Amino acid sequence: MKDKIQELVRRHSADFISIRHHLHANPELSYKEFETSRYVQSKLKEAGIPFQVMAETGVVGLIEGKNPDKRIIALRADMDALPIREENDIPYKSRNEGVMHACGHDVHTTILLGASRILQALKDEWEGTIKLIFQPGEEKNPGGASLMIKEGVLEGPAPQAIFGLHVHPGLETGKLSFRGGMVMASADEIYITIKGKGGHAAAPHLTVDTILVASHLVVALQQVISRNRNPLSPSVLSITSVQGGHTTNVIPSEVKLMGTFRAMDEEWRFRAHELIRRQATELVHSMGAEIDLHIDVGYPMVYNNEALDKVARATAGQFIGKENVLETEVRLGAEDFGYYTRKIPGCFYRLGVMNAEKGITSGVHTPTFNIDESAIGIGVGMMAWLGSQVEFKS
User: Fold this and answer.
1) CA dist., res. 291 & res. 191, Å (int)
2) Computed over its alpha carbons, how large is the radius of gyration of the chain?
3) What is the DSSP string of 254-275?
4) What does the alpha-carbon distance between residue 324 and residue 312 come to, in Å, rounded to a whole number?
5) Catalytic residue among 28, 33, 139, 373
6) Residue in 366, 348, 346, 353 with CA at minimum distance from that of residue 82
7) pTM for this prediction
8) Number of H helices, E strands in the chain
9) SS3 7
10) Strand bridging mode 72-78 / 181-184
């Protein structure tokens, strides 16, 4: 089976790269992946794979092998791009000004399309059913995964496990990395408006200085992490935007703050929300100002099932060699794949796409992000291999 997968990858590698170029050149923002969705549907039709549309732009395909009820495995890819202006000088550069596949979702979608083509071609060689999940909106709340789950993507048939991958620009091409347990953090957005009495900067005693209040609050909020969190539990609170005032001699009546809160522990996560609300409200009121505070609850943490991770690592080692299967570092970035791992056992792994000799080293979410395209074949083969081989019962 492994030899057949690898041969099909070699045979169709140019097609897979062509798919990636088309997707990269035609990026669409979260929940607006209409053309991308139609393109995915057309490729599934070409392969003879039945599918349905969910969450407006999501696509769910189904491939039945021998004994389709024996095992049901889900494979997932995300399809949305980011509001970034691409700076790469490449033939397949984004044609949509200000929109770019800067996080590799074009690669993820290509890999799942490629794996689906191989699994369909070899469906008489493996047992079970593969559910293909092409989801919208990974980059933006509430997360396409949550919408797909609400519409029943994990039902009829219900997968026993789910796999997803992400490109890793810090990992060399030819390598994969896995991790059991905590992998990525929850992510919540913080929005604060501080309201006071504006006035002349030369008469601060006649105002309630919102700039000063905001300055104290930015510093004080760090105590939520440093003095309340278990130091063994990773967590971050970052205020990333301060907006207020427009000239040198006026104290503004309003200052807006925005930020993010990340955690790897769900109990601490929601306790921290209460601490943030209480500390911010009491401090602002003590300085004579008013406050509006909203915490937009985002994605849960990604938790890889330890037993599934162990099986996946062993299976990956069989395909690309144990020496090429590494340990993924804990990251405080977020992924809506966490919604799936709350429902069923999941394994979210990393695909190396870096090639320093070719100058391909830019990180995700940057205008110069790109990949070593030889990684696409590795990703396609690995996902097809996992889908066809892994047997797991929680």
Assistant:
1) 10
2) 23
3) EEEEEEEEEES-HHHHHHHHHH
4) 13
5) 373
6) 366
7) 0.92
8) 9, 16
9) helix
10) unpaired
Among the listed residues 120, 115, 82, the one whose alpha carbon sits nearest the alpha carbon of residue 100: 82
Fold of 2-185+301-389: Aminopeptidase (3.40.630)
Residue recorded with tokens 């790897």: 264
As its CATH architecture, domain 186-296 has: 2-Layer Sandwich (3.30)
Judge contact between 144 and 78, C-beta under 8 A: yes
Percent of the chain at pLDDT > 90 equals 98
- CA-based angle 297:303:305, to the nearest 5? 150
Residues 6+ apart with CB under 8 A from 18: none
Task: Tell me which of 299, 339, 340, 349 is the catalytic residue.
Answer: 299
For the question of residue 299 being annotated catalytic, the response is yes
How many other C-beta atoms are found inside a 10 Å radius of the C-beta of residue 186? 23
Both tokens of 313, joined, read 């690592």
Q: Where are the domains of the chain?
A: 2-185+301-389, 186-296
Residues in the chain: 394
Token pair in block for residue 291: 């406050």
Phi-psi region of 123 (alpha: psi -120 to 50; beta: other; left: phi over 0): alpha
**Two tokens, residue 233:** 């539990």
Give the whole-angstrom CA distance, residue 196 versus residue 31.
38
Average pLDDT along the chain: 96
Pairwise CA distance, residues 284 & 275, whole Å: 14
Q: What is the pLDDT of residues 150-174, one digit of tens each?
A: 999 999 999 999 999 999 999 999 9
Confidence of residue 394 (pLDDT cuts 50, 70, 90): low
> Residue 15 — pLDDT band, cuts 50, 70, 90?
very high
